Design the sequence.
């Protein structure tokens, strides 16, 4: 399985990776974003959405837990659903909100704080790890499925 790592010197580096990822996306992809508060998970997602053509504001859905965005991917409309599960109280909350139905093989799901829902959350195609390193960030991407693997093969950064 494909594996990728890089050092992101500054926020512009994080945004550039988000844009590269946007070009490598495929429908149905689930990406878990791992990393402490302030690691850059939301910054990366925002850059990805803007590069995918979404023009509005992108904030972490801290209280609503999820926020859907409609983008064009290779001429086709796709939902990108951004989750931030940091404030999720229990796995039941995830199920009651109907979040499992969002992972339908068509939507692209990007999940901050997946560990908060690990018993009920569908598995990822890609795990992305961000960590503070000096003034910048280290990033690591691991594919866990064939779909994630093909995404990393298309990733040019
Ligand atoms: P998270 O969603 O992981 O809690 P945020 O994206 O909300 O983190 O915040 C990340 C913070 O780190 C922002 O202040 C952003 O400017 C900064 N940042 C993002 N990427 C980098 C980087 N590569 N180097 C230094 N600072 C960064
Ligand atoms: Mg965040």
Sequence:
């Amino acid at each position: 399985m494909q594996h990728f790592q890089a050092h992101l010197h500054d926020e512009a580096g994080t945004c550039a990776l988000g844009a590269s990822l946007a070009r490598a996306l495929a429908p149905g992809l689930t990406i878990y974003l791992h990393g402490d508060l302030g690691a850059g998970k939301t910054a990366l997602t925002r850059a990805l959405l803007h590069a995918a053509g979404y023009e509005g504001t992108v904030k972490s859905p801290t209280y609503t837990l999820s926020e859907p965005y409609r983008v064009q991917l290779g001429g086709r409309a796709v939902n990108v659903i951004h989750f931030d599960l940091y404030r999720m109280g229990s796995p039941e909350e995830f199920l009651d909100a109907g979040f499992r139905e969002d992972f339908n093989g068509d939507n692209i799901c990007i999940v901050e704080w997946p560990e908060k829902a690990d018993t009920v959350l569908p598995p990822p195609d890609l795990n992305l790890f961000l960590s503070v390193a000096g003034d910048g960030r280290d990033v690591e991407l691991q594919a866990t499925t064939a779909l994630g693997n093909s995404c990393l093969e298309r990733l040019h950064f």
